[in-house]
Amino acid sequence: MIGNLILCLPLISAVLGGKPRTVRLQEGRRFMLNCSYPAGYESNPKYLSKDDSLMAEDVIRTEVHNTAVQHGRFSLYDDTNGRQFTVTFDPVKAGDSGMYRLGVDVLLLPDDYCEFHLEVQRVYLTPPTIQHSAERDKQPHPFGERTSQ
After folding, report:
1. How far apart are CA 23 and CA 2, in angstroms?
2. DSSP secondary-structure letter at 148?
3. What pLDDT does residue 135 have?
4. Are 99 and 56 in contact (CB under 8 A)?
5. What is the strand order of the sheet 84-89 is part of?
């Protein structure tokens, strides 16, 4: 279907067959992606699939319209009046990194979709330094010398 356009906002805008965009996020954040679709596809199933191998695997798929569908950390809401659907990762994890396809299932024709590559950066927290009492006693007192009474 040359000429059909699916817009993925706010981070991705793609034309069918266009080069996939890369999205970089930090682990633990909520990630939402809105994608508009052409008129006539309001009743078609919508999906998010992850394609890290020869076979794409649906992360979430729905034929339900105007109602949010939840599957684990993922949700999909198809707004048929606005002709857009929203996919949410909550929270995004490092293991979510990979190539994704956001699409409209079209019967007997190639699906309309856009692709994006998600890169999730792991967040490392620095553990607090633990001082032992012997080390702490060697440190200068913040208010001057300690006196014994």
Report:
1. 25
2. -
3. 59
4. no
5. 12-15, 5-9, 31-36, 84-89, 74-79, 69-71
Q: How many CA atoms lie within 13 A of 125 on its CB side?
A: 4
Task: Report the candidate in 98, 97, 88, 85 with the shortest Cα–Cα distance to residue 30.
Answer: 88
- Mean pLDDT calculated for residue range 53-80: 92
Residue 138 has pLDDT above 80, yes or no: no
Neighbour count for residue 134 (Cβ, 10 Å): 7
Q: Which sign, positive or negative, has the C-alpha torsion 121, 9, 102, 59? A: positive
Rounded CA separation 107/94 (Å): 34
Please check whether residue 142 is in contact with residue 136, taking contact to mean a CB–CB distance below 8 angstroms.
no
74 pLDDT tier (thresholds 50, 70, 90): very high
Confidence bin at 14 (pLDDT 50/70/90): very low
Give CA 124 to chain center in angstroms: 19
Check whether the bond before 20 is cis (ω within 30° of 0).
no
**pLDDT computed for residue 93 by the predictor:** 95
